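re: that complex we talked abt at group meeting.

here r the seqs, copy pasted straight from the sheet so there may be weird spacing, ignore it
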Amino acid sequence: MTHSQWNRKDLIGLRDLKREEIELILDTAASFSEVSQRSVKKVPALRGKTVVNLFLEPSTRTRMSFEIAEKRLSADTIGMTGSASSMTKGESLRDTAQNIEALKVDLIVMRHPSSGAAYRLSQYTSKAVVNAGDGINEHPTQALIDIYTIREMKKDVKGLKIVYLGDILHSRVARSNIWGLTKLGANVVVCGPKTLIPKDIEELGVKVEFDPLKAVQEADAVTLLRIQLERQNESLFPSLREYADTYGMNEKMFQRAKPDAILMHPGPVNRGVEIESSLADSPRSVILKQVTNGIAVRMAVLYLLSGAPTHE
Amino acid sequence: MSRTFLDASEIQRVISRIAHEILERNPDPKSLALVGIRTRGVFLAERIRAKIKEICSLEIPFGILDITLYRDDLSEVGVHPQVKETKIPFDLEDHTVVLVDDVLFTGRTIRAALNAIADFGRPRAVQLAVLVDRGHRELPIKADFVGKNIPTSRQERVLIHLQETDSKDEALILPEDREALS
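got the structure back, here u go
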């Protein structure tokens, strides 16, 4: 197994990555998964490196997962959240970048409400930038976790039918997964209310299906996406109850998928809306496995980025 | 010009001798465990394990160590080397661990391996077996079991080829490592 080396300064999105680079991250993650099972869950790979976690949008899971990954690599970490940041006092991304640079930080993990913010930041700084979600654009580490989990369960993603059901329009997770999965040869189907499916999304190489029963038919993996009410200014569908009736995943709908199909969710889960509560806890659900895998995948990303040449 | 200092049959004999020496040193073979250092140490450890099984029909616990994350030059090597899986599927506490590597040179790999081992637990003791000791230690590290001592200059290169990775068994010495000099 020979691999291309990692030479990127940043991880902004799966859109930019070649298939080989995605595979390198996934294989590296597989090596890191063992670290979390040791009695001392720590390796000295990033000793002496400082990572700043800049979370300018609410996040618990992703922030905790990054922080754990950083600590298990022995990096020093500092966290900054939206309300505590000077960005709420009007500081621009450029000034934030320059200030962070002056503090001799090595890596920046950023979540930002605006699409494109991570790319912008990466242009302003010579330090490595990891996109932890930018607006509705991309959430590359979450997609890598999803693909890693599918690979773990199914060996290979090539040729699999993978369905995304829910709010595709506002989902950076779906977007990143589409870029990644299509590069690895999966057949991606997106489904949801018409108002929540972006126009021309077929151009990314996915199939659009408006009937959830048809979408789920013979699927190998189904990812449910939360309705992101916080990103909706206008009314895009009548009510959550109505959404749950038509698109909510239940035992009956899931029976249409392959007998060994897996259920996925990037979290946070709204039980009773996009997924029937009992189904979320069933053995078919790999939701918590995704959370566990998140640490290994993020360790791999941080490890590879901290070894890449910086552009100083 | 390269010079072969161990051929296939000599390597086989050396491994057999190391296996006997390990058993001689450790009167309670049930407490033994072998841990091979990636890449070639793993195959040598497997062979020693097979030999020990042949001698006293005992299955010795076996582990694989990737020391990449413990290297002391990680921040200097540029592009980070690929990390492969470490597997220690047994409890270290009750065991005397014999670390196995192909070539002992500066001792830095062994230092890294010792730190990695410590993160898995506290073995009763750690011993070191190497196929070749070529000298030039930079750390106070010494092998307990040595296949062959071979005097080298720092510029020379010692290459170990094993069936499992290189489709033949031999140990070679190359006049100088041009890449390392440049």
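couple things i noticed - Chain B touches chain A at residues 66, 68-70, 74-75, 77-87, 115-116, 118-121 (CB under 8 Å). The mean pLDDT of chain B is 93.
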